[in-house]
Specification:
11 helices, elongated, binds iron/sulfur cluster, mainly alpha, about 325 residues
Length: about 325
């Protein structure tokens, strides 16, 4: 746009996303602090999707188990442009965040990733190679959301996007969210071509929102009878939430997207049983197909005889 181009009316840009692509080195003139006239204006009428790490961080700070946290502070939602179920922050009756007070955010050091990013957004584009010789195309860039009510843009402080990310703890959040975000993006790239079974959706929801339940599942008899998990791994799953979170993402990648994972091996015995079951099912299906074919042949023979008898009767009559 040239210097003299008219500024597009705001209603043509309801998301208030500025058209410039930003990089880590781009300058960001912005500061949010209790002195701004709009303080906490952005903590209402919002859609804050919670990542598994957001949930973990929040419930640790609130000293709550997953069930209680999910019930009190979240509501189920489909993750943007996917059929994957997740949760978002449940707003109060007035449409405000349950953690906001006139003095600010009561859980500020533990706030969700979305709150840390605002007013910066990140876009990640990835296109898989069309064939083995081609290379994948991926691009990551940032953009600015400039809403009228947000006066932080009028503050003098300037920093780079990289400095902003560090200051807001986004680097740490993104590192923790990475594996899960990759699953969501992978699903997004499928569009609506492939449907996900209800069982797969249920397991995705459980692993993404309720790590307590996921832990019970992976340390339960049925899971341990199926997968090879050594004692040290079981111990880590029992004690280390971050390891459990990463394991959950790997499990989802393997079960939903068929990603090969050496650390998630099905026991030989189970594999053998499964193969036998498949063979048995196949033999039964072949048996059923053969019986149906024989039945068809018999019907065909019957029909032939009926036609022949009819013809013979017709000849007799005409004679
Ligand atoms: S979690 Fe904190 S920063 Fe985020 S919307 Fe709620 S009060 Fe605002
Ligand atoms: S509207 Fe902008 S400046 Fe005001 S509190 Fe929210 S982020 Fe800070």
């Amino acid at each position: 746009m040239s210097k003299n181009s008219p500024t597009p009316p705001l209603d043509h840009n309801p998301s208030r996303i500025m058209p410039n692509k930003l990089t880590l080195e781009s300058a960001l003139q912005f500061r949010c602090h209790p002195g701004v006239s709009c303080f906490t204006a952005c903590c209402g009428n919002i859609n804050i999707i919670l990542t598994p790490y957001d949930i973990l961080r929040l419930r640790r700070a609130l000293n709550m188990d997953a069930d209680e946290f999910l019930l009190r502070f979240t509501t189920p939602v489909y993750l943007e442009k996917t059929d994957l179920p997740g949760v978002k922050l449940l707003l109060d009756e007035g449409g405000r965040c349950p953690f906001v007070t006139p003095e600010g955010c009561t859980i500020y050091p533990h706030r969700p990733t979305t709150c840390r990013y605002y007013p910066v957004g990140m876009s990640y584009f990835h296109e898989a190679p069309e064939n083995k010789e081609a290379t994948a195309v991926s691009e990551e860039f940032y953009f600015l959301v400039k809403e009228e009510h947000c006066k932080g843009h009028e503050e003098a402080q300037t920093q780079t996007i990289a400095e902003w990310r560090r200051d807001q703890g986004i680097d740490e959040s993104d590192a923790m969210n990475k594996e899960w975000m990759e699953l969501v993006m992978r699903r997004k790239s499928f569009g609506h071509q492939a449907t996900l079974s209800e069982a797969a959706k249920r397991i995705f929801f459980m692993a993404s929102t309720n790590l307590d339940k996921f832990r019970d599942m992976v340390l339960g008899d049925s899971f341990l009878a199926t997968y090879e998990l050594d004692a040290a791994t079981q111990q880590k799953l029992r004690e280390d939430d971050i390891f459990l979170l990463s394991f959950a993402c790997r499990f989802l990648a393997a079960t939903i997207f068929g990603v090969q994972d050496q650390g998630l091996k099905i026991k030989e015995e189970k594999l053998r049983q499964k193969m036998e079951r498949i063979k048995k099912d196949q033999a039964e299906a072949e048996g059923r197909a053969e019986a149906a074919y024989k039945e068809l042949l018999q019907d065909h023979e019957k029909l032939k005889k009926q036609v022949a008898t009819k013809k013979a009767k017709g000849k007799k009559k005409s004679a």
